[in-house]
Design a protein that fits this description.
alpha/beta, 4-stranded mixed β-sheet, 22 helices, globular, signal, ABC transporter substrate-binding protein, lipoprotein, SBP, palmitate
Length: about 550
Amino acid sequence: MKLKKWGGLLLTCVLSVSLAAGCGSKNPGGSKEGETPGETAANLNQTGFPIVNEPITVTGFAGKFFANADWNNIKLWQEYEKTTNIKIQWDTVHKDNLAEKRNLLLAGGDYPEMFYASAFPRADLLKYGKQGAFIPLNDLIDQYAPNFKALMEKYPIIEKGITMPDGNIYGLPTLYDPEFKSVLYGTPWVKSEWLTKLGLSEPQTLDDFYNMLKAFKENDPNGNSQKDEIAWGGVGAAGIVNYLRGSFGLNNHGTSNIYVDSDPETGKVRFIPTDPRYKELLQYVNKLYKDGLLEQDIMSVKSTEVDAKGVEGLLGVVDNVDPVAIYNQEGYVGLPVLKGPHGDQMYTATGSPLGNIGMFVLTDKAKHPEAMIRWMDYFYSDEGIRLFFMGWKDETYKEDADGNVDYVDEIKNNPDGLNLDQAVGQYLIWPGGYYPGFVTQKYFKGAEGLPTSVENAKKAEPYVITQDKIWPPFNFTADEQSELTGIQTDITTYVDEMRDKFISGNESFDNWDQYVANLQKMGLDRYLAIYESAAERYNQ
């Protein structure tokens, strides 16, 4: 996914499957043990508000971005409680401690009725779903979630991506509107003023790109008679590698499963890091590094160090969101998609519209699953999305005659010196990017929604792989996941370490065959076979 980590930017199920399967004593279609049959149904309104006639209280656990935020007293949930008659008794933890806390709750059995913004990995969804702790949501979506169901029907990748191999859906996701192109992809940013000063056109080929970076480094484009310019500024080598993947014909299904795609000749799953094209890509990036055209500490540099150089205007190319948003530096434009050595000119560094699919989970302790799926479904509607991201008209946002919305001045230019995330965080919970829901261009006001970001995506669009070709992260069976866990960490850690060593010159490309042989010893053939099975299931 193209979304960057900068504050609040972040940005084929069978619906007849019985929800009773694997749910223990839970009966999602009606009453909970200890309730009078029909009591839940009698209190529930099928449409509109309030969701329930008589108020109910539901226990919920969530991860949050601001450690000091009290979700039991934040305006979003207070107002939504009035609208729905559903009070959430929130237990929250800072996102840095989220995994540990949620795992402890489940291990101890003292877990809530609902997990919200808890970012469960796919393996956990299947594990706890098969154990019966998480209830299947298939029938509940079919009957009580018209907004989410409509999105599944419009974008089949959603249903295929959230359905586990057992046919069940155990969690609802963060979704990024496929029409919101700039939140899904965008090329790195180049300082157009430097191009003009040096009489350079925007690069179209790998040679052009090399020559542009070399000119930035050597020809004093900032005019201070010092060689202090950083041609490419970024943290880690992944940014430059990902930008160039499509120029070498790699990742033809996007980067959600970043190590695999389809072999153009056989159609079978290909392991990218052993492909000759990937070797060529690393050799090209090694040349950039060796000639001083990348940040020389790129493997170890801290983001704060790069940010300091960015604020000074010393970065020719920025691998992040628009520098106007993070460095207050105007005049950067998106780089073109480059033509590679074999004629490839694709932009493949894009993920699927699916974010984390374990952002809303109902447990077998949920007393009112029908009401809670309706509670969540609202945030997949236009009205609910506007509430979630923008808040309340004339209080937190204003709307012009054409229906365009923006935050009020008190939030954008907070009198207490709060930044946008902090000012919004007094009312809403979206800053930090931890939430289920639907991210749309109309209501999302992070850097990806800036006109410059939209223009960047539009420039790349002719070369971006189409939505029907993009794979979401694959779901594995329990047996596959168990086996994969044993080999995947070793393989991916080794691949990333060797990528950096090859680029930096700490490992000779003469040792490439030994690198491939080491991966074979780690179980690469079995790794590929498991991914092949997952790809076949997805393509059914």
